[in-house]
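Minutes, project check-in

Agenda point 3 was the complex the collaborators sent over. CS summarized: two entities, 457 residues total, and the question is how they sit relative to each other. Sequences were read into the notes so everyone works from the same version.
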Amino acid sequence: MARVCPFGPPAEYAALRASEPIKKVSLKLNGRQVWLVTRYDHVRQVLSDPAISANMKAPGFPLQLQIPDEMVQAAPLTLFHMDPPVHTVHRRMVIPEFTVRRMEALRPHIQRIVDDRISSMIEHGAPADLSSALAVPVPLLVMCELLGVPYADREDLRRWGTQVTARESTPEQQARIQQEMGAYLAKLVAEKDADPADDLISRLILKNREENQLELADITSLALVLIAAGQSTANMISLGTLALLEHPERLAELKADPSLMGRAVDELARVITIADTGGTSRVATADIEVGGVVIKAGDGVMASLNSANHDENVFPDPDRIDFHRASNNHLAFGHGVHKCVGMTLARLELEVVYTTLFERLPGLRLAVPLDQVRFKSDDELVYDIHELPVAW
Amino acid sequence: MRVVVDRERCVGSGTCVLTEPGVFDQDERDGRVVLLAAGPPRELWETVLEAERFCPTGAVTVTED
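CS then shared the predicted structure for the full assembly.
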């Protein structure tokens, strides 16, 4: 299924919600049959049912990646694919690091990072690729700050981050960069283990010494997951900026009343919903009933967040960007025990970026016609843009 | 209105704190929900009910007095 408008969902979802909200479909990748769940209430039900597993190694799991099964079975499970009670142990290690209070304390650091990137973009002059100049580096540098990556190494990570998402990178190059990042983080974790400082990785190490639940390799894996997951903020920086440029009346509204920014961040996250089924593929471990349909143990399930976020029974006129919705309980950050652990951080970064960008570059505009902007496909698990050429 | 939180179900997403910071907070040590007011004033009822609906794991329950 393809998006009709770059900011909205594929057209098929509206028809599915109306006629067959829980439907067996074939996976494009391998033709396997899975249940596609498209209504808001059903998506929430599926994602909070204890008989629905995120374990990608379980038989029947609808993996959307072209990886041989022996590699899937050999790979360690990341936080995304663990089930309780193991998931609970790992998740509880990181949640104190992302509290609302802790993220608010990070605001001046985020502001400084955003200011620096925008200054550097202005220095280089227009036109600029907003994606590589701002969107990709900001979440990466913020995560470096949080994790405690030394300043001297941040440029390496920024380069790796840009290369890993670049269109010209081959899968081999991407795999190599990921390996380099993994090796770097393993070394960093070992250094912090020997000499802990005041940062996220050190706190995890010290806490683990008391609780003894994880190996150092688990902490490296958590750090990698946080960096990777943090990069979805980059996609929302690019796509959200573009959506505002393409909806000048909404942008004008936001400039006139900056207090709307929090609502704007949520509404853009809802309308665009960059992670549709990429993070919400599951497998049933027991028979369950959803909306009158029996999903049998071993059946694959995909809960469409993009469809749920455009369910007209919950969001009237769902494709419209509206900063004044009475209640915006969108699912862009997921639902259930896997709901994004970095949601508060992502929202804060987006607030700071959109606010600062349009303050400092009030004349910001797209440097090419919209139809020349190249969008990635939702098949890549998280929707994004290749480049965002802008001028000001 | 009575509010009850289940810290065992809580996954610390911060959703309730962002929705109604006058009633919900997070424990600094474990990041999980802390209730600031079990019987919140009437002017907060609407956002407390939102926090109940928004919670990703059903860790917030609201009942009548």
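Noted in discussion: Residues 171-194 of chain A form the longest helix (24 residues).
Follow-up: revisit at the next meeting once the mutant set is ready.
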